[in-house]
Every structure is written in C-alpha cells, then in structure tokens.
Specification:
146 residues, alpha/beta, Transcription Regulator spoIIAA, two-stranded parallel sheet, 4 helices, 37% helix, 27% strand
Length: 146
Amino acid sequence: MLPNLYPPAHRLLDLHDAHGALLAEFDFIPETRTLYVRWHGHLTAAAVIEGTQAAMQLRHQGEAPHLLLNDKSLTSGDWSDALPWLHYDWLPEAAAGGLKAVAYVRSPDPASQTGTREFIDAVRLLLPLGVFPAATPAWKWLQRRG
C-alpha cells in the first residue's frame, strides 16, 4: 500500500506465485504516470522475470508509465540469473515505450546485491536511475525527473 505521501493510485494487479504467496503489487499513479512495483518474499530469477512480464502486459493494456518505482525493500534472494533477460529484453522495450527514469529501492538482503549492482549499471546506460534505502526518498527523487 502506498503511503499518504503519494497521489491517489490505482491498484492494477496483485501477482501471486505458484504457491499463492504475494510476489508483487502493481500500482499506477495517473497524475505522474508512475508505476510503483512493490516486490515481496524470496525472489528468484524466474519470479523477477514473471513479475516484469506482468508489468509489461499492464503497460500494453493502458497508458505506459513514464516513471518506475521498483521497490525490493521487502525481498530477499539472488535473482541475478534474470539479468540477461532484463538487460536485453525488458530494458530496450521499456525505454522505447517511454520510460524516462527508474527509482530503485534496495533489498536489505546481501544475496541480492550482485544482481542489484549489475541491474543498476545496465539501466544507467539508457535511463536515469536512483538507488535508495526506502520508498519515500525514491518517490521524491523520481518526481523531480518527471
């Protein structure tokens, strides 16, 4: 759920994994054309790809977001095997589709840091990206880029 700091959002999707556990929440804030993805649980490469593909489908069904708040603060796990797909499939399509900036909220889990560093480096080749410990400073930074 988005804190009161944010403008009104529309819940687009609650994505669950094969066992019924919440994998990610997708909220769209029309006022700023921001997609806020809040990930949950222990992430694997397959889970990250599944969630990102769901976000891509949402984009094709409505307005494409200009800003992405990618919040992994409630996650753990090494998802670095998803990096080639993110780099060569998702990133070019997202940039071509109008994405202007990404705010990334880090996971506190050390196992996710390798994937995080490589993801950040890849995104920064095409888009402004800020890295944050929490969603509030990420949101504020992102809105200055919109």
